[in-house]
Amino acid sequence: MIPGDSLLRWSVRLSVVLMLAGWLLFLSKRSSPSNRAAARWAWTAGFATFLVHLWTAFEYVHRWSHIAAVHETARQTRELVGLDWGDGVWLNYAFALVWGVDVVWWNGFPDSHARRPWMVAADVHAFLGFVTFNATVVFASGVSRWLGVAGCGLLIAATIRHGRHGE
Prior knowledge:
Distance between the termini: 47 Å
Largest sheet: none
Shape: globular
């Protein structure tokens, strides 16, 4: 067990739960001001918790080395799909950037964020969802994978329901 292993694992788990809560509250049929505020809080807290996970990974696993992160990503990808490819670490950096920009936009300029073109929102959420799906279903194992499947299923159902109601 590496130092900080519990913080590494629980920070990402909490981050995903908060992200999912933010998505589900945002897509809720009852899009009241309090639901929107709760969605924004969960989305922001999820991102802050993700930053704790990112810091913990670099502090305890990669020792603040981008090269070590690339090698570890390549190892995990090779073990899972047989492809020795470490550039997936850049997807993680992009994930942090996209989510962070969205959090700053939503908190700093909520009216502008609410009026953004639907395609911008769709692209942001599709990218974040893709990376989260890979992290929680493809690269996860055991109970974490099944919880990831359940969370993704909930999100898909909520998205379909949201689309049908034209909210």
